[in-house]
UniProtKB/TrEMBL annotation:
<feature type="domain" description="Tyrosine-protein phosphatase">
    <location>
        <begin position="29"/>
        <end position="177"/>
    </location>
</feature>
<comment type="similarity">
    <text>Belongs to the protein-tyrosine phosphatase family. Non-receptor class dual specificity subfamily.</text>
</comment>
<dbReference type="GO" id="GO:0004722">
    <property type="term" value="F:protein serine/threonine phosphatase activity"/>
</dbReference>
<keyword id="KW-0378">Hydrolase</keyword>
<dbReference type="GO" id="GO:0043409">
    <property type="term" value="P:negative regulation of MAPK cascade"/>
</dbReference>
<dbReference type="Pfam" id="PF00782">
    <property type="entry name" value="DSPc"/>
</dbReference>
<dbReference type="InterPro" id="IPR000387">
    <property type="entry name" value="Tyr_Pase_dom"/>
</dbReference>
<keyword id="KW-0904">Protein phosphatase</keyword>
<feature type="domain" description="Tyrosine specific protein phosphatases">
    <location>
        <begin position="104"/>
        <end position="156"/>
    </location>
</feature>
<feature type="active site" description="Phosphocysteine intermediate">
    <location>
        <position position="122"/>
    </location>
</feature>
<dbReference type="InterPro" id="IPR020422">
    <property type="entry name" value="TYR_PHOSPHATASE_DUAL_dom"/>
</dbReference>
<protein>
    <recommendedName>
        <fullName>Dual specificity protein phosphatase</fullName>
        <ecNumber>3.1.3.16</ecNumber>
        <ecNumber>3.1.3.48</ecNumber>
    </recommendedName>
</protein>
<dbReference type="InterPro" id="IPR000340">
    <property type="entry name" value="Dual-sp_phosphatase_cat-dom"/>
</dbReference>
<dbReference type="InterPro" id="IPR020405">
    <property type="entry name" value="Atypical_DUSP_subfamA"/>
</dbReference>
<dbReference type="GO" id="GO:0005737">
    <property type="term" value="C:cytoplasm"/>
</dbReference>
<dbReference type="GO" id="GO:0033549">
    <property type="term" value="F:MAP kinase phosphatase activity"/>
</dbReference>
<dbReference type="GO" id="GO:0004725">
    <property type="term" value="F:protein tyrosine phosphatase activity"/>
</dbReference>
């Protein structure tokens, strides 16, 4: 059943935060949160041996830049890794939404490549990178925001800041308005 924007309203940010507080996953440096999709932190991003052991073929750095996690294509050259860097800040006022679709496209392309394994990270792997993984699940896999939160938080402790959660809510409304099919378990109304 297609759900139209006027009939679908995601949970408020405060309720989404409660969902995250009740669904705590692992707190390691890196966790597989979807088949061949890994979410983690700067420690793993700089650990070439760990990336090699995981078979990572694509890295999305959500904290790219000189004063953040300054890796980049040159850093991963000897691992033959495709790299996409986003100079995002973990600030509720930062507009991460402009990267939702490009990040989802990069992740999807990586997962569709032969033996593709994608590692998405920021400094701690709980806010910026987690938000981009949530956006991927919503855009490419048809998840509602609530289902994406539940799915990822089963595997990793995440905590997108309230500004990013609001941007993800707006994405959820947009996707529902475009006729995304939602199962009965994802409808809030």
């Amino acid at each position: 059943m297609a759900v139209h924007q006027s009939h679908y309203e995601p949970l408020p940010v405060s309720d989404l935060q409660r969902v995250l507080w009740c669904h705590r996953g692992s707190t390691g440096h890196v966790n597989q949160v979807w088949p061949r999709l890994y979410l983690g932190d700067a420690f793993t991003a700089r650990d070439k041996a760990a990336l090699r052991a995981l078979g990572i073929t694509h890295v999305l750095n959500a904290a790219s830049g000189k004063y953040q996690i300054n890796t980049g294509p040159e850093f991963y050259r000897d691992l033959n890794i495709d790299y996409y860097g986003i100079e995002a800040f973990d600030d509720p006022n930062f507009d991460l939404s402009v990267y939702f679709h490009p990040a989802a496209h990069f992740i999807k392309a990586g997962l569709q490549s032969a033996k593709g394994r994608v590692f998405v990270h920021c400094a701690m792997g709980i806010s910026r990178a987690a938000s981009l993984v949530l956006a991927f699940l919503m855009i490419s896999e048809g998840f509602s925001l609530l289902d994406a939160l539940r799915s990822v938080s089963e595997h990793r402790d995440i905590s997108p800041n309230h500004g990013f959660l609001e941007q993800l809510r707006q994405l959820d409304i947009e996707l529902a308005g475009k006729g995304r099919s939602l199962s009965s378990r994802t409808r809030n109304t």
